[in-house]
Amino acid sequence: MVDKPKVVLGVSGGIAAYKACELLRRLTESGHDVRVVPTAASLNFVGEATWSALSGNPASTEVWESVHEVPHVRIGQSADLVVVAPATADLLAKAAHGLADDLLTNTLLTARCPVVFAPAMHTEMWEHPATQENVATLRRRGALVIEPAVGRLTGKDTGKGRLPDPEEIFEVCRRVLARGVTEPDLAGRHVVISAGGTREPLDPVRFLGNRSSGKQGYALARTAVARGARVTLVAANTALADPAGVDVVRVGTAVQLREAVLKAAADADAVVMAAAVADFRPAEYAGGKIKKKDGQDPAPVALVRNPDVLAEISADRARVGQVVVGFAAETDDVLANGRAKLARKGCDLLVVNEVGESRTFGSEENEAVVLASDGSETPVPYGPKEALAEVIWDQVAVRL
Ligand code: CTP
């Protein structure tokens, strides 16, 4: 029998502690042995009984409980992953400075496994230089500090500082565990990913669109976060949950997508164009709904070209050494068309896949070949879109 992966769930004293109950559930239900280590302050929000009942393990706060088991050393040493959710400004400061005045901070010093912090606090506290420097210190040492989400905070405030959805924090934990003790190889990198499919409006109710779900782009965003990158996801008409730690910019049309991608790409180390961008848009937009007229044939729809974002970014790299990745969805002569497209677009990598009504669009799996401008070809067998995403980041990482 294989031992269950050991996860330490650290909970510090913020109102978002209640969301950690859901994260704990997801971790235990998916076969992890979870030990919750709450701080004393966090017990004001969620009590010890909840943690021990949900985890099936004791939940202690101080190093003075069960001293004969030397918990302040053993819990950290034996963990496969430590995740602190929520991580308050105070906890991040203690971790950055190596303080060890309770069981959680002791555990953080003894752990040699990957450590994930999911901060949650008010925007002012998050943006304060003290917090930002502590976060930078933790990241430099190899910890994964997930960017907080933007939205409603405690009270009436809104802004950056929300704890991401527990399900999305779980997704980060799952990927980090799968990677093992490898350093986050995209740490300190900014990557921009476009996802979904653009819609080109004909009138206020109709548009020309395509069948892209955005799942491949979202898988790229999630895997990049787990590898330590700062991620901007330009999402065109997707209906998927915001991945934890990702800055999501929502767009509708190809022109809007171009604007958002170019803006984010200005300081990006890599740009991955996974979105299905419409090559054409209606030449005219009818301000009112187009009505059918009895006895008259419908008027033809005139189209004009949209800008080619991938070609533009490949030609005008905003940064020296920026890696640009395109996708090619082909129905026939897949590899030959892919190679020609790689040359035409001028990108570094082109991920070629075969599409059809029942293939790729909206599905969880994908099969592809990653073509590189240096002539190499990496076939990726049929499997989860996440596995393809990992291969793409492997290829990007070696070129950075
Ligand atoms: N793309 C883009 N801007 C466009 C069209 C496409 O940036 N206006 C990007 C896509 O995001 C994708 C790549 O280009 O990464 C390939 O898109 P595709 O539509 O397959 O290529 P085309 O050059 O339009 O070729 P064709 O329609 O002839 O297959």
Explain what you see.
- This protein has helices at residues 17-29, 48-55, 71-77, 89-97, 103-110, 123-127, 129-140, 166-179, 215-226, 254-265, 309-315, 334-345, 385-399; strands spanning 6-11, 33-38, 81-87, 115-119, 144-145, 149-152, 158-162, 190-196, 200-201, 207-208, 230-236, 246-251, 270-273, 280-282, 303-305, 323-330, 349-354, 365-372, 377-384.
- Helix 12 (334-345) links the parallel strand 16 (323-330) and strand 17.
- The model has no long low-confidence stretch (mean pLDDT 93).
- Helix 1 packs parallel to helix 2 (48-55).
- The strands form 5 sheets. Strands 12-11-8-13-16-17-18-19 form an 8-stranded mixed beta sheet, sandwiched between helices. A 5-stranded parallel beta sheet has the order 2-1-3-4-5, sandwiched between helices.
- The protein is of the alpha/beta class and 400 residues long.
- The protein contains 13 helices and 19 strands.
- It has 2 domains: 6-179, Rossmann fold, CATH 3.40.50; 190-287 and 295-399, Rossmann fold, CATH 3.40.50.10300.
- It is elongated and about 85 Å long.
- The structure holds cytidine-5'-triphosphate (CTP).
- Cytidine-5'-triphosphate binds at residues 254, 273, 275, 277, 279, 306, 308-310, 326-329, 341.
- Residues 254, 273, 275, 277, 279, 306, 308-310, 326-329, 341 line the site of cytidine-5'-triphosphate.
